[in-house]
Amino acid sequence: MRSLTCLALAATATNVLLVASLRAQTAPSTATAVPVKKTADRWSPSRTPWGDPDLQGVFSNADEYGLPFERPTQYEGRRLEDISPAEMARIVEDRQRDIVTRAPSVGSGALGVPVHWFEFYGAKNSRAWMVADPPDGKVPPVTAEAQRRLALRAESRGGRGPADSYEDRSLYDRCITRGVPGSMMPAQYGDAYQIVQGPGYVALNIEMVHETRVIPLDGRAHVSAKVRLDMGDPRGHWEGNTLVVETTNFTNRAAYRNSNGATLTIVERFTPVAPNIVEWLVTVTDPATWPRPWSFGMHLTKKTDAERPFEYACHEGNYGLQNILSAARAEERTIAEAVKKGLATPAPSEFPREAEGEERRGK
Description:
Elements lengths: L3 H18 L35 E4 L24 H18 L28 E3 L10 H13 L35 E7 L2 E6 L4 E6 L16 E7 L2 E7 L16 E10 L2 E9 L8 E10 L15 H22 L23
Antiparallel strand pairs: 1-3, 1-10, 2-10, 3-4, 4-5, 6-7, 7-8, 8-9, 9-10
């Protein structure tokens, strides 16, 4: 990994080149976002020299580690707004204890490691769960069309195992992408993001897998439907202090939760609600997969420049993929030897396709 000095110089150079290349902003975007519950304006950010709300800085989602995506069963019948601040404080304390319980090697024992290695240690969740709409906190069940599509995809695999080849692993395992909105979701590390602005553009640099989303604000139309991208085609505009980003044109392989890349629309709302907090709300719409739009959200917490995204170097250090495949081959040899000797064959491992921090898709 490069030194911090090199990283700082590279980041500075990138920012200068980006801002220098940006064109002046013209008309606001005509993209329409599916409405989500609006957060009350509690704080107004400063403005850039060209008049846009200033969202620039380094952010982290580490405080949202351990935050359930859907409503846990113990809150059955309740909505997010039913959770009082006092109850939320108790929930955070319980979850912090759970993190320590699940990681007994933190700071002690033969495998003890320093607490600061765990970026999520002491996470202070902003809410009880992520899904805000529907009010029951659950992702809507998929449509019959989506069920047929998933069945056809499974059938097309032709009985292949989960680790027969690198192509059987997730795009995350393969260091290709975590997609949208997956790349914004908390994992166990790599939780840094950097927002850079220039006239007519916003750029979002993502530490994990090290992708950068460049978002035009000049009202241009989306690219042709024939153009499909793993991270989609984003278009942004401002609604007051909120940056609204509509993303379409996804590839099927990277479409969120096995949705249809041709009909999926992701609308993100980045709203500064305090000097160090940006609320990130997402509305997912795909009539080919879900009967209605649904929404979820969390907070991004501002950090100092010392915590800007590191170089991820995913391919160079991807021993995980190599080990998954080599372990699968070793297991196949063990089973073959057992069959040859007439011994009971061990049950094959599942080798789950979901990588660390990745949602289980299709649930």
